[in-house]
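Our collaborator T.R. sent over the components below with a one-line note: 'Predict the complex.' Nothing else. No constraints on interfaces, no templates requested, no preferences about which chain binds where. So this is a plain run: every listed entity goes in together, and whatever single assembly comes back becomes the starting point for the next discussion.
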Amino acid sequence: MTVILAAIDTSAAALPVLRAAATMARTLGAETRAVHILEKAHGTAAAMAQHAGVLLEVLEGDPVDRIVEASSEAAVDLVVVGARRHHAGHRPSGHVASAVMTRVHKPVLVVPPAARLSESERFQHVLLPLEGTTDSTEAVAGQLQALVDAGADITVVHVFHPGTVPRFWDQAAHAHQSWETEFLAHWCEQPGAELRVRSGDVAGAILDVAAREAIDLILLGWSHEMTGNRARVVRDIISRAEIPVLLTHVAR
Amino acid sequence: MGAYQIRLGEFDAAVLDLDGVVTDTAGVHAAAWAELFDSFLAVAMPDAAPFDREADYLRYVDGKPRADGVASFLASRGIHLPWGDPDDLPTATTVHGLGHRKDELFHERLGREGVRVFSGTIDFVQQLRARGRRVAVVSASRNCRDVLNAGGVSALFDVIVDGVNAADNALPGKPDPASFLFAAQRLGTVPGRILLVEDALAGIEAGRRGGFGTVIGVDRHHHADELRRAGADIVVTDLADLTFVGDDAGATPAWTVVRDEPGFSTGRRAHDALLALSNGTIGVRGGLDTGAPGRAWLTLAAGAFGLGADGDGMVRLLPGPSLTAIAPPDVSAATPATRWTLDLRSGVLESRPIAHVRGVCTVRFASLPRPGLVAVRATAEAGQRWSERPLQEPRLESAEALAAAFTYHESALDDEVWWAQTRSDRARVCAVARQRSGTDPTGAWLERLSVFHTDTDSLPGEAERALSDASQVGFDALLAEHRNAWAQRWGAADIEIDGDDRSQSAIRFALFHLLSCAPTSGEAGVGARGLTGLAYAGHVFWDADVFVLPVLAATRPEAARAMIEYRVRRLPAARRAAQAIGREGARFPWESADTGADVTPISARNHEGDVVEILTGSHEEHITADVAWATLQYVDWSGDAGVLDGAGGELVTDTGRYWASRIRVDHDGQAHLDRVMGPDEYHEVVDDNAFTNIMVRWHLRRAAAMIDFVDSDEASRWRHLADALTDGFDPVSRRHEQFTGFWQLEPLQIADIAEVPIAADVLLGRRRVAHAQVLKQPDVLMAHHLVPGELPRGSLAADLAFYLPRTAHGSSLSPAICASLLARAGRPDEALELFDMAARLDLDDLTGMTGGGLHMATFGGLWQAVVYGFGGVRPAGAVLCVEPALPARWTRLRITVRFRQIAIRLELAHDRVVIDADGPSSLVVHGIAVRGSAELVREAEGWAQR
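Returned assembly:
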């Protein structure tokens, strides 16, 4: 049995973190555990964990350091953190979330404070933004397969921007079908996966598809560095998403 | 390594003789023979000349079956022993008995002294193996394996063919090539791609007779001249004298396409398309033969369509039964790394494992002389299990909803013959296939012959008869006739470019697919992707008429004629289409499939997630002039004016009549075509599109000439309309305006936006490009390309200067044609850059869509860029004009065409032109009229005939 580790604070953001962790645990057939890093009183965290039926471990010290340590335990497969403390508009992710994202070398599920968590038992409809590069496809391969095995539907989204616009586009109707066919065959061979192609602002287009298509989880591969274009897209999505985002990166 | 170069890319394998090439067994044999004959002669004929270890050895015994050697030496001394029985004891005084005694003596020496191996040969074999080539050793000796073991080198050979194999398979000895051909088959390749190494005259002769690619003689006995006379291409004293050249991966730019998987960077579906085989009737995509799941084993039959499986109402290609699954379905897909080699010269696709382990090797081809026939052969280790069903339901990939919906049936007709069909709402693709398999001393083999047909091109029972005929001919002979047919096809069409391997390989690749995209008779509706994939639904666009037809008109006129026949048979549908919108004559559809009805989609999703209207079907009307252009292009090349006496003539005049009824004449007497779309689809509905108007003007003039003697009133009315048509030409700037109002659009240079090629409509949005001077492909330049005589002199340079910087080349049709025009305008080095863009389009999957099929129009554009552009070779009526403009790095360009039934080979260089014509022919070379063969050189004062 693998473990999903939920890192919670005492804010209202902890509840969706625990719920997302439980959903992920059911999806992947894992066990949930929570950690709380003691800053002040931990009564709230304990109560919330108890309410969620999750074993809580209380640690003392620097929150990021402790979460990173707890995550490094071999049994832990995936770490869940809140995007930020408060539901206060589209703010950048909190410093704990940012630090955990870059320092933990395991998949990190980032949960917004006002996450729209479906009532369903599992993550059922996953949105997979793909760039059409080997790196971005490899980064998600393991988690994608686990989610597919758990019965999730996959919708792939690809956004044309100046760096990814095709060079040739012959007859609009045929080109569209042909390009989609080849893109999926090349970058996401999951049977039944559907592709949405958009253009323009990458994060905006991804979130738009997520909202229109009742997506409950975004699976996002990234370089594990907070620099570069892809990282800007990742930051944008984390700060604006209303659903959990599962971040994975290529093991190097 | 030394003096002689071996172009590695031309070979998949090598076959080496044993004695004298790999091992110095000859010395051991010669000593054993000497011992045998000396003791025999001492008793039987004491005054006879003793056995000479050099002369007698070479003359009488070397390379021959043992008993033959005994008999032939003794005969030389006038001794004729009874042959006896193969089971005779070594003590028997018979030919066989003496043979056995010699064998004993040989083995005694082998055991006592071992055998020397030639180190130069061992290095040579190891180098070949390091480059993924398979190596066989062939010997008439039954001791072959013992000798290899004695020399410690048996592990170096993938295939060993020895005297035991020869006896079991009744293979006659050298100089009969049977044992070498047997090895070639085990190596999984064709003799033409095998390097053969021999030291004996009989072996050299066998190699020559077997059609081996290069025969190398190893001169161990100072008889180099005799080896050459016997047919050796190269004679060396040691294999260390050979040097390998060419791409280490084995790709010769010239004649092969090599792809390894896994590890093929642009994706396996692109690979399947690049390795597709076709004969114009049947297309088979490349693909893994060994049973990996999820692969598309796609077989496509020309002309077979059906309603699409995805319910959007589109008519799409109907996949035929699949025949390439080799392993049974329960064999897991632990497929070893595989190298695929497409031999363009012979139209044969081979696969074999990259590692030196034995695995499944396959050879397949789509027969040129037998249009429905596809043949597959596989070899593997003994014990390999094969799929029992030669035909199977096509397994489309999950993402691929681009095929017609179909039902599938199959049944076994007898132990060896299977029948299967796919059926759509309107068509069937049927196949009969015979499968045989077995095991021989070198492993297991499978042979599968299949004949495909559709309802439209075959009578009942015809396919079975064709299969039965093919089975009697046999795989090897079928392969040989296929290779011969390809050799003929290349002989009539090849292009050679000296000084630029990259362009050379690209033009050969393009030619390979162009030369095999249409059948020799009947009708040929060549789809935008030929028979290499399901993309673009197999629909026929102007790609066929304007881009593909010219190369066939100039090299395979009968295939060009079949392409015209496709249009001619749909003339009634085109007439109905014109009538339906209140016009006269005939209007051809922008996209066409089986019936000739318009099958252009009317809407599509775009990348903003919205559904947009597709206007090409309703507005891209120039197709109606393009089909007439294609017909006359065929007549220009072939001289076959007879086609115009019948339906071909009606095709040109009825389409002309459509334009006459379509043109609006204003109060000033100016003629206009309102609301059309040109090839530049960024500007969708425009007035007086220069390309369309110029094409229509040309069309009306040519059509008027054809009806003059029937109805001179109508003819003069057409001429009048043609003269009155606006063409946007501005005599001051000497440029043509692409359409009314184009000068007023937002001035944009593509370089300010992005690097070309770029899909500017995707980048900027359809609305922006519609209001800007940015082009998908340059309409005005396309008019210069198709009908240069219709545009004023001097306007090409001005139009190029204006339009090229505004061209995004977002159409795969654009770069090659622009290259052709740049060459015509005297800018061949810039032309080469655009030529290369088109050349890499499929080879490097620049579109990301090669997996859906190859871009036949881009291939056709490449040929036109070479022949019309760089070569400046183009018919003008009954004269062939030749005016080369070669890029600096092209030192020589050789072009082969057939002009008015005369084969003409042109050798074009910067300062020399050589014409080699098979008969009298009118040419104008650099402005100088010549009749047939001629040589012209550039001298100080200009070109002159020698």
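Summary for T.R.: Chain A touches chain B through 34 residues (CB under 8 Å).
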